[in-house]
Design a protein that fits this description.
This protein is an alpha+beta fold and 230 residues long. The protein is built from 11 helices and 5 strands. The structure holds one DNA strand of 10 nucleotides. This is RRM domain-containing protein.
Length: 230
Amino acid sequence: MSRFGRSGPPPIRDTYSLLVLNITFRTTADDLFPLFDKYGEVVDIYIPRDRRTGDSRGFAFVRYKYEDEAQKAVDRLDGRLVDGREMMVQFAKYGPNAERMYRDDHRGRDSRRRSRSRSGDRYGRDRYRERDHHRRSRSRSASPDDYKRRGRDRSPSRSRSRSYSPDDDRKGGRDSLSPARRSTSRSPLKTPPPRKTPPPREGSPARRNDDRSPVGRNDDRSPGSRSPST
DNA sequence: GTTGAGCGTT
């Protein structure tokens, strides 16, 4: 998918990978190509997609031929408004050529001290991670689980719903809680509501009102309202 | 039709 129109991934001899984050889910490599190509020689652009849906994950990888151009693109395109969203450009930390970056890190370090503060504190995007730890909606958190499920038990329709509690599968609690939960909702129509039985507060002073309680209920329970004979 | 931290091959 990293091909702009070519076939197969280009050779990674001296290319530097840039990680583009915060891009829209609709942004494609073709949209980022003209943007990054203006600041340097883009060797390849790759956008990881979902294995199931095939949609973009919201980030892309841009490979530059030289680190100078790559670093420049980071400062220039970082925070750039694309499709109505600011994309964050940064050097790829992991990857096939990640080792190369560490090698030149000693000389590319001084180039980093740039006006990075202009973007980041103003957007305040960092506050989201602290506020919500479980903010993940449907990211690849369940992706690895889906693969394992498919190998042991093929249940595509159920694998999605079971992603929330993969522990019950091995515990066998699946069958245990089934009858328990079913007993309550099994016959909600004929069986009285499973309301929690109130603790016996006979010794409670407030219970003295019980003297008038049966009176009020008795009135409500009068056959007049129970059996409205027409 | 949605979502929003991260790290990559069809």
